[in-house]
Amino acid sequence: MKVLKKLYLFTLLLAVLLFLDSCDNCDCVNSNSGYGPADKRLYFTAQALNSNFSSVFLFVEEDYQLERIADSAQIFSPASQDEKVVIFSQENNINKVILRNLFDTAKTVIARKNSMYFGKPVISQNGDKVLYYSENELYLWKLNNVTGGAHLELLTSVYANKMLPTFSKNDKYIAFAEKLDEATLNIKIVETERLENIVWQKQINQNYKLDQKIQWLDRENTLYFVLNDTTVCQYLVDNFEENLIKIPDAKNLGVISSSISRDKKYIAFVSLQNELWIKNIQSGGFFRIIENNNKNKRFIAPCWNWDNKKLCILVNEDSRKNSFWNLHCLELDCQNNIPKINYNTLIFNNVVNVFWGI
After folding, report:
1. What's 336's DSSP letter?
2. Fewer Cβ atoms within 10 Å of its own Cβ: the N or the C terminal residue of the chain?
3. Is 137 among the domain residues?
4. Which residues, in sequence order, are CB contacts of 210 under 8 Å at separation 6+?
């Protein structure tokens, strides 16, 4: 009986060890109890009405859980894989770039300055690098994981701060925009470990009427951005291949802001008529998702979720009366490659920035 009991305990211990080992080696998305998988989280900044006071929130789409992460702060990128977030804090007229764990109050102040031209920090996927700007300069803050120290590197002194910089999904590359003159932007890709090595760059006409952003595709070194009001540019870094995706058809839709689905199948974009459309990249078909008969209603910043079944968008119900943007989450049905809205859920009012987790 004792032998059987020892054999049972040994078998149980072996099973536990095998389970732990499988978890260490699995390709799971990082998660924390109570917050669900990281790629099912939504991070956003919300402002109080008639006030400059803002807070950072985390929304979990699985159970519609809403958590406040920080007050008197803004966020410009989702958490890293190791659950770190970088926050832009505004307290006592001092602006700070703060690195902290998502589930801990301990924090590291990366930089501080009493200037309105400062901040907009973006964290890398691995959580050991942060991009932020000061005046016209863009900086890379790098943590040395061996010594625990950190150092700064200057990327450019002509940074265009209305387009957020971004790390590729493996942190190998950084993409950002430079303001060459009043009419010209330069989109540039550099190697993260060798900033002097320019991988690719392209000059575009500057048009701040467009909601221009630089978007890397998950697990690939593919970059997307709005080139002009009729074209989305795609660049495949590994293949040194540039493709131009044309948007307009006979309706002359045009593009104000766009987002590529993570499976590279669809482009969601806001047209010049302020309507939400989706283009099937493979078939070339156009589908109007939200019709807009109100000339004062505005849409910006479409953002696909992890499985391409939900699309977040910011909506201004009446641009004449207010500047408030409300965060909506659209649940899509894409049967037969024809996207339609199943549900349109209001998540939060007066939202400034929004990002899906990685």
Report:
1. G
2. N
3. yes
4. 226, 228, 229, 255, 256, 257
Residue 87 included in any domain: yes
Those residues with Cβ within 8 angstroms of residue 197's Cβ, 6 or more apart along the chain or in another chain? 190, 191
**Coil, strand or helix at 145:** coil
Q: Could you tell me if residue 156 is inside a domain?
A: yes
Q: What one-character-per-residue DSSP string does 83-102 give? A: SEEEEEEEETTEEEEEEEET
Strand pairing of 65-71 and 54-60?
A: antiparallel
**Strand 166-167, strand 173-181: pairing:** antiparallel
Give the CATH number, domain containing residue 91: 2.120.10.30
Residue 130's pLDDT band (cuts 50, 70, 90)? very high
Q: How many domains does the chain have?
A: 1
Confirm whether 357 is domain-assigned. Answer: no
Q: What is the pTM of this model?
A: 0.84
Alpha helices by DSSP H, the chain: 2-25
